[in-house]
Task: inverse folding
């Protein structure tokens, strides 16, 4: 049963880097040190340049809706190499960056994941789902 | 083999094994996703490293040339003296950021650029070749800080990849096959026992019928 | 948090970096001294980056590599060429990559 415990520990570790609570783009922009607390008790900072990019891609009215970090969900069920961005504002802004239409949910593939991660390296995070 | 796992053939054990197998498969699939994501991240930072390395090395060699020139024109002693007088309190801002369970440094650096007036050495006893050398090294330092950050991130990712790979392999080549084998064995055994039971019941029934 | 920069190498490197604002420098002469200085830098809470020349790192050999493997997240350590431009023939990063990631990248290209 030791192996099982190790697997469960690994699974628990997968999402440990994620924040306890996300903050909106609006809040991040107005903060001197835009950051979130991770579940492990660490601090994850957002790069201002990325916040400004996101602000350009969304109308000001939506800044409160966009929750950061944006989650790129990896779920084995989606198939290897596939990922998903959920959330109205999140999917929309990711779509705009990638040049795709999106409503509520955006399915993306490995090269698009790479592009999102490159442009928004601190404002996106991988989320493992099972 | 199933008895090596210490389980007796019964339906409870089948359920337990199926659960364990499911867990192992899930762990395996997710760790593979994690590895894929880590490779994406790695390729990106590696690209940056190659770019930074080329730029930094070029700038560093320029800086050394300027310094050699300075040593020649101003003298070694005078140059090292000036270096001692320089304000040497350069700060870099380092915070942590997280990438899938790895903590990596996030560096903010405004750059080392100063000018002859603000460096701290006296302008009377030094010449412009010193300013040149200092400026080139300031530029080099800026690039080296970025390179250091990128290399630190790359190493952290590699370490995590190694860990994940070992686990995926352990699951794929050891645990999952073992569980599948045990499950197969138990199901076979249960099947056998059921057939034996069935035959036994038939015989008992036949005996009872004879007695009538 | 704010951190300072340290440099270990030959006189040229340390002088140049000092001119650029690096706070702590050590000119390499004797192996034991340099190892001790490196340890000091690696355990300091003030230092965020240590620059070491390739030549010195090579001379320190196994001890240097061990310290790299066992050090904390900070300070970051970067090896740089000195004025001769010397870089070792074997790129350690590339070798590490080939060992771990290399296989993954090959699979990716095919699959």
Result:
């Amino acid at each position: 049963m030791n192996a099982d415990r190790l697997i469960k520990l690994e699974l628990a570790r997968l999402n440990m880097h994620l924040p306890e609570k996300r903050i909106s783009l609006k809040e991040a922009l107005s903060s001197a040190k835009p950051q979130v607390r991770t579940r492990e008790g660490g601090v994850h900072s957002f790069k201002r340049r990325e916040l400004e990019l996101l602000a350009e891609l969304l109308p000001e009215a939506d800044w409160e809706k966009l929750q950061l970090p944006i989650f790129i969900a990896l779920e084995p069920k989606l198939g290897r190499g596939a990922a998903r961005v959920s959330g109205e504002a999140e999917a929309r802004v990711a779509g705009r960056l990638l040049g795709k239409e999106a409503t509520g949910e955006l399915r993306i593939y490995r090269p698009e994941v790479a592009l999102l991660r490159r442009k928004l390296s601190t404002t996106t995070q991988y989320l493992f789902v099972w | 083999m199933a008895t090596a796992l210490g389980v007796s053939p019964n339906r409870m054990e089948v359920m337990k094994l199926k659960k364990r197998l499911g867990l192992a498969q899930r762990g395996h699939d997710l760790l593979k996703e994690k590895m894929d994501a880590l490779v994406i991240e790695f390729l990106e930072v590696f690209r940056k490293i190659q770019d930074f390395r080329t730029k930094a090395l070029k700038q560093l060699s320029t800086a050394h040339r300027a310094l050699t020139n300075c040593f020649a024109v101003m003298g070694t002693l005078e140059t090292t003296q000036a270096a001692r007088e320089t304000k040497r309190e350069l700060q870099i801002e380092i915070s942590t950021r997280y990438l899938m369970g790895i903590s990596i440094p996030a560096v903010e650096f405004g750059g080392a650029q100063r000018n002859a007036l603000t460096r701290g050495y006296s302008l009377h006893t030094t010449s412009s070749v010193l300013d040149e050398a200092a400026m080139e090294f300031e530029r080099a330092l800026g690039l080296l800080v970025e390179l250091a950050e990128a290399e630190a991130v790359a190493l952290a990712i590699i370490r995590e990849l190694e860990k994940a790979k070992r686990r995926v392999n352990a699951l794929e080549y050891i645990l999952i096959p073992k569980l599948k084998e045990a499950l197969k064995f138990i199901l076979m055994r249960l099947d056998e026992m059921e057939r034996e039971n069935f035959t036994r019941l038939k015989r008992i029934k036949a005996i009872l019928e004879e007695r009538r | 948090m704010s951190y300072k920069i340290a440099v270990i190498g030959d006189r040229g490197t340390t002088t140049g970096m000092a001119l650029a604002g690096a706070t702590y420098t050590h000119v390499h002469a004797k192996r034991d001294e340099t190892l001790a200085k490196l340890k000091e830098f690696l355990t300091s809470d003030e230092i965020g980056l240590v620059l070491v020349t390739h030549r010195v790192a090579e001379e320190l050999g196994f001890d240097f590599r061990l310290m790299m493997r066992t050090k904390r997240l900070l300070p970051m350590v970067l090896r740089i060429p000195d004025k001769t431009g010397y870089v070792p023939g074997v790129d350690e990063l590339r070798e590490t990559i080939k060992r771990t990631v290399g296989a993954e990248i090959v699979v990716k290209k095919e699959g």
